[in-house]
Amino acid sequence: MALIWKSDLNTNITVIDNQHRRLVDYINQLEEVREKGDRKAIGKVLNDLVDYTISHFAFEESLLEEAGYNFLAAHRRVHELFTRRVAEYKHRFEAGEDVGADVHQMLSSWLINHIKHDDADYVSAVRVQINDTLNEKKNTGWLKRTLGRFF
Questions:
Q1: What pLDDT, on the 0 to 100 scale, is given for residue 82?
Q2: CATH number where 27 lies
Q3: C-alpha distances in angstroms, 52 versus 8, 24, 83, 123?
Q4: Domain count, the chain
């Protein structure tokens, strides 16, 4: 069954929400190729999903670090445990096991739970950081610099 993005998954941090939606797309692609029984396509989607997830985690963790998020170490640990779990499924797949249904179920439930709980906890800290950064850029933008030369 396809995973449907619902508004309760929004963090209202556009870049993060877009990345989460992309993860949902990968999960749905995995389900599509699994239903077709295309083992080669399953392997490709799994590899792409793992690569994208690792990139997303790194990006998210850098935002949390910049925001001074107090629970970054714990959040990073959750990411590490998840990455290991997916790697285990990937190894089982490469060994010839049919793990497609298990991986799809695990990814679907884990992602929703992670967004609603773990990610929701950092939203306020990151929003403050993003707003501060945007305000800083506005205050040091081209127009302000240009006007500053004249006034």
A1: 93
A2: 1.20.120.50
A3: 22, 11, 11, 21
A4: 1
Q: Which of 101, 86, 87, 94 is nearest to 34 (CA)?
A: 101
Q: Would residue 5 count as lying in a domain?
A: no
Convert the pLDDT of each residue in 122-142 to its tens digit: 998 888 777 666 555 555 554
Token pair in block for residue 43: 């392997």
CA dist 42 and 64 (Å) reads 32
Share of the chain above pLDDT 90, in %: 61
Residue 145: other Cβ atoms inside 10 A: 10
Which domain, by its residues, includes 99? 13-150
Could you tell me if residue 122 is inside a domain? Answer: yes
Digit-coded pLDDT (tens) for 20-32: 999 999 999 999 9
Q: What angle do CA 138, 59, 62 make, to 5 degrees?
A: 70
Q: Compute the distance between CA of residue 118 and CA of residue 11 in angstroms, rounded to an integer.
A: 11
Report the alpha-carbon distance of residue 23 to residue 15 in Å, rounded.
13
Q: Which of 49, 47, 42, 45 is nearest to 23 (CA)?
A: 49
Cα pseudo-dihedral 55, 60, 66, 67, rounded to 10: 180
